[in-house]
Amino acid sequence: MSRDWNRSFPSRRNIFLIGGGVLWVGLTARLAQLQLFESEEYETKATENRIRLDPAPPHRGTVYDRGGKILAGSKRNFFVTLRPEAMEPGDTVPALLDRIGEVIELSDSRKRQILQDVKSQARFVDTLVADDLTWEEFARINVMAPELSGVSADVGELRSYPYLGAFFHTIGYVQKASDKDILRMLEAELTSLHVSVDSDAGKARAATLRRLYHSPQMRVGKQGVEYSAETALRGTPGKTRVLVNAAGRVMDRLPSEDIAGAPGTDIVLSLNAELQNYAIQRFGKENAGSAVVIDVETGHVLAMMSTPAPDPNEFVSGISQKLYDSLLNDEKNPLYHKAYEGVYPPGSTFKTVVAAAALESGAMKPEDIVHCSGKAWYYNRFYHCWRPQGHGAVNMRSAIQHSCDCYFYEAARRTGIEAIAAMAKRFGLGHRYELGLTGGKVGVIPNDAWKRAAVKEKWYDGDTISAGIGQGYVTSTPLQLAVQCARIAGGPGVPNPKLLVAGMDVPDSEITPMGDISEQTLEVIRGGMFAVCSEPGGTAYPYIQMGQLDPKGELPAPYTNAKMAGKSGSAQVRGTIERDARGKQISREEDLPWKLRDHAWFIAYAPADNPRYAVSILVEHGSHGSGAAAPFAYDILRECLKNDIGSKPVYSPKKGVASAEPQPTPRKPGEPA
Amino acid sequence: MIRRDTIVGKLTQMPWFLLLIIVVIAVFGILILLSAASSAHSPITGQPDIHPELAINHASRFAFLLLVAIGVALVPLRLWAGIAYPLYFVGVAMLVAVDFSGVIVNGAERWLQLGPIRIQPSEIMKLAVPLAMARYYHQMFETNRSGFWIHIPALAFVAIPVALVLRQPDLGTALMILGTGCAVMFFAGLSMRLIISVIALIAVAAPLAFFFALHDYQRQRVETLFDPDADPLGAGYQLQQGLIAIGSGGPAGKGYMQGAQKELNYIPEQRTDFIFTIVAEEFGFAGSVAVLLLWAIALLQGMNIASKSKSAFGQLAASGFVSTLVLYVVINLGMVIGLLPVVGIPLPLISYGGTVMMTVMIGFGLLMAVHLNRDNGMSLRGIF
């Protein structure tokens, strides 16, 4: 044996033992640091670790009409959820769903959807199986409970729309939030808070929002006021302290009264539920179209309806694909807010704009005479009047009364498109009014610059002639025409249209004001519109009791014996050749298929001498403005006067019933502090 | 008087105290594993919720391997010296085979499938390397060869398996084998001057290796060590949650089966590499120090056996195995309490898992064999 090694081993062993001792002392020192000196700090961290704050769905704000009627509220909801983890061993989700299906109705597509939801979530998370159950269904599930391990039946809240389809387009509807909805809201929220998505705060916010909207009770606004006012209606989610494990599974709930949330803000709309319903019923099932009523004094939109409309309650728990497809394919476009999003050529209602432009620019005087022979020659072609035999000599008042096309061809030619376009904007056209809704269209008020940008062509003189009678490129929405009518009736002092009265404010700084306009100009137009309704020869005169809203003297003061003023219009639907100007009628309107008939317009206000209510009516494919639309305008105006809807005080929702923040009690002046 | 070299004689000569310590550590491990799967008050029902399966597995494995260890101890040490080389070369061959046809677990190739059995060749090398080196040195010393050059082939004994294990990649095991091999060279009398200069060189080279030689996940673990809060849900999560468990245990612990971090499954790998967090959370500083003390006693007993052996093979094999155990304990505890980067090294006899227990118990068997053959100078001439 090597002597070197025999000598060296004991010293090597000693070095090893000393080194080991140092390591052991080091480990012990570190353990002492963690467990003796810093243990309190770690104890705190351990507690934070285990307690998570879960969002508790707040009560969603109610949407009221101006009279305090609930348009969108919450109702008691019996619902059923499934938690795969709690199922009997050996049971499967499809088998369980089949057994539930024996008790309550579950379509195959719904079952597929549930299976998909179950797969995408952890086994300890509740998945919604069915909600909006009747009491009988709910009771049946509870009776079956012993055979349905993993299924629980609960009571909560669900959005409900008592007026069914009446406010579908304006208020919209709620549904379960998709990942896209959550992402969109998160982005909006983080942008408004200037927080980055990648920051800790951003991640925490994202997690909270996801958990909130994933809870079976929670819904999100998908359209209309429900969508735009989501943040206000949602309220502040409360928090529940829950004990969780590392996988996020809730093990226990802890007391959390101190972190309750606040219910959503209630919203009051300027609409009147009865008037809206009346308008819908007046249109009836056979007509498609829109009616908008504006209070000339306050600018409040009292009715804004598009018909037909589906029932939003069908959407809340997920609409069936079959029903949705039938709505999509319906030629009456029930999903479409015609009042706000439908753009149609304004037709002869636009003659009021041309008249104002002609007078204000000095191109024409009210008493100037134009001879109408049924057609007029401009720029190498004939432009026809709607009355083939012509109107003879007409001035501005009688031209409006008879809706003479030839007069307005000439007026438009003398005024020029730029002045007409400017006046159209001042009358409220060509602008998307921000009412706190989704959608909304601008329409088109054409001029040279617009045409070069949109059509890539210069403005031809003939375009001006067509624009003179509201055809060609001009388009507008029923809401815009209601604003136009209110401005004619009330002059520059008419407030801008307003739909949200309380709960949320939506500023709209882009509105073109009416500006200075001579009272004389407005009087000429008003006179013409009065003649349309109340003088023989007026286009609407035969259809609306000769413009007399109160033939029997039944209306309350100050509306007794009120009369109305209005203007009809037809928006051409057929081919582009005819859109340039009125050609010879190929066939009678009534013989055409529904889809090809002209849209009928009527704008009107009442009382004629002291205007309070302005209305615009659109009947899709109604053929004649006077025949189809004017009677609706008449009845709706009469309804407004009968109840004097605009003058009644607007409902103000009770505040802070369940609000978390105490309201300070106001102190009367002079009271000791 | 019973002759020492009979089986009965050997049984009476067993190092009883060491055996007792091993049993105490293992029983402690069984209790901890019972707690790992159970809870005194279930958060769902509030009732005790006991799941003994892990503990039973651990106990039966230990009982079986204790018998194996005694069996190993009874085999003449000469025979173990005889198979040292073949074992080593078979091990190397298997490491190469893993490279070609290994089973991939957690992104690393570590297992070799031989029919129905899965073998982890790197585990075999933890014992084969010190055995082969001990035999090599024994032969060198027996033929009176000495000097610096004899350490060069010894270095090759270490470097080959280390390189192969690194390729898997399994940094933890590679470090263990490297450490054990270096320890054997150290005990074999490698010049202190050389050792000190190598250590100095490593001190310089380590930062370079950190930036150029480590895998991304390894670098991340090192970075995590210095700042566990940097990424609390990512790489730092395990360490962070482990520290919370240990720290919140305090001086006396939360009581057996009452650890909250454990109960709510906050710590990944808690039954294996992070088992110490349960000890520390439920038994506090007192329990942590007890584990350290038990292992210190076991290791001192091991060194005592090494010192008393009259053969170079016995001394080097025993001290090499003791070094392996020191590395296990220090690396495991060091990583759990946040002093070392997270590498997958379990705490022997306490962590759940059969492979490590087999290695360690066979090692203890060899240690006891050295004890039983301590007076035999052992000429290895003539074998193979």
Write up this protein.
- The complex is a heterodimer of chains A (673) and B (384).
- With 673 residues, chain A is an alpha+beta fold.
- Chain A folds into three domains: 49-69 and 162-269, Penicillin-binding protein 2a (Domain 2), CATH 3.90.1310.10; 77-157, 2-Layer Sandwich (Ribosomal Protein L30, Chain: A); 273-314 and 332-646, DD-peptidase/beta-lactamase superfamily (Beta-lactamase, 3-Layer(aba) Sandwich).
- Helices cover 38% and strands 16% of the residues of chain A.
- In chain A, the strands form six sheets. In chain A, strands 2, 3, 4, 5, 10 and 17 form a six-stranded mixed sheet that branches. In chain A, strands 12-11-20-19-18 form a five-stranded antiparallel sheet.
- In chain A, helix 11 runs antiparallel to helix 24 and helix 16 (396-402) packs parallel to helix 22 (519-534).
- Chain A starts with a helix and ends in a 30-residue tail after the last helix.
- Chain B has 384 residues and is mainly α.
- Chain B has one domain.
- Chain B is built from 14 helices and three strands.
- At the A-B interface, helix 1 and helix 2 of A face helix 5, helix 7, helix 10, helix 11 and helix 12 of B.
List the helices and strands and how they pair.
The complex is a heterodimer of chains A (673) and B (384).
Chain A: H1 3-37, H2 39-50, E1 51-56, E2 63-64, E3 70-82, H3 93-103, H4 108-120, E4 127-133, H5 135-144, E5 151-160, H6 168-171, E6 174-175, H7 179-193, H8 200-214, E7 220-221, H9 224-228, H10 230-234, E8 238-244, E9 250-254, E10 267-269, H11 273-283, E11 289-295, E12 301-307, H12 313-316, H13 321-329, H14 338-341, H15 351-361, E13 370-372, E14 375-378, E15 381-384, E16 392-394, H16 396-402, H17 405-415, H18 417-426, H19 448-454, H20 461-467, H21 478-490, E17 500-502, H22 519-534, E18 565-571, H23 576-580, E19 599-606, E20 613-619, H24 625-643
Parallel strand pairs in A: 2-10
Antiparallel strand pairs in A: 1-8, 2-3, 3-4, 3-5, 6-7, 8-9, 10-17, 11-12, 11-20, 13-16, 14-15, 18-19, 19-20
Helix pairs in contact in A: 7-8, 11-24, 15-17, 15-18, 16-22, 17-20
Chain B: H1 7-12, H2 16-37, H3 53-74, H4 77-101, E1 103-105, E2 108-114, E3 117-119, H5 121-142, H6 151-166, H7 171-187, H8 192-212, H9 216-226, H10 237-249, H11 260-263, H12 276-308, H13 312-336, H14 354-372
Antiparallel strand pairs in B: 1-2, 2-3
Helix pairs in contact in B: 2-3, 2-12, 3-14, 4-5, 4-6, 5-6, 5-7, 5-13, 5-14, 6-7, 7-13, 10-12, 12-13, 12-14, 13-14
